[in-house]
């Protein structure tokens, strides 16, 4: 696909998607980095005293916001070609997606903290389960809703 800027008279190639496998690899690498950011913020806030109810939920909420916002911008830049487009639809999709995954991540974390037996790894395991759940939702929705690439349409050019 080629885009032409009539004012500048310059033809530029449109960004292309790295394909599903490439997207999964990039998403995984970016997600791994952002999960470390998320987990670091969560553990840091817990170390500062936010390790009891309701503060642990607020710590998880804040860490989720920091991690997923970082992931959104990195994935927009490096993973999904459709993310390179500007528009209110993307921002609206982002807000809706992250509101849902925010509720899922905090809710799953809360559930895990209630159902898991007491151990030194309880909070970590709860975080991992909540993060994994949110990550799956994020990839699916980012790829096929928020950063959806426009479908290529077959057009014929007729010369007069």
Automatic annotation (TrEMBL):
Keywords assigned: Membrane, Transmembrane, Transmembrane helix
InterPro entries in the record: GtrA_CellWall_Glycosyl, GtrA_DPMS_TM
Record's keyword annotation contains Transmembrane: yes
Transmembrane segments: 24-42, 54-74, 95-113, 125-146
Membrane-topology annotation of the record: Multi-pass membrane protein
Any GO CC annotation of this UniProt entry: plasma membrane
GO biological process: polysaccharide biosynthetic process
Primary localisation category: membrane
Keyword Ubl conjugation: no
Protein location: Membrane
Domain GtrA/DPMS transmembrane: 26-147
Family the UniProt entry places it in: Belongs to the GtrA family.
Protein's UniProt name: GtrA/DPMS transmembrane domain-containing protein
Organism of derivation: Amycolatopsis japonica
């Amino acid at each position: 696909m080629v885009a032409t800027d009539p004012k500048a008279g310059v033809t530029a190639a449109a960004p292309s998607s790295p394909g599903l496998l490439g997207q999964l690899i990039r998403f995984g690498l970016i997600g791994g980095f952002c999960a470390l950011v998320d987990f670091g913020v969560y553990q840091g806030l817990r170390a500062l005293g936010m390790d009891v109810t309701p503060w642990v939920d607020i710590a998880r909420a804040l860490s989720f916001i920091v991690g997923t916002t970082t992931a959104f911008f990195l994935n927009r830049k490096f993973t999904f070609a459709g993310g390179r487009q500007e528009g209110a639809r993307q921002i609206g999709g982002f807000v809706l997606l992250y509101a849902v995954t925010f509720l899922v991540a905090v809710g799953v974390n809360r559930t895990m903290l209630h159902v898991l037996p007491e151990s030194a790894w309880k909070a970590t395991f709860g975080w991992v389960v909540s993060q994994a759940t949110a990550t799956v939702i994020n990839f699916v929705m980012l790829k096929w809703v928020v950063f959806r690439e426009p479908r290529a349409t077959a057009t014929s050019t007729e010369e007069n």
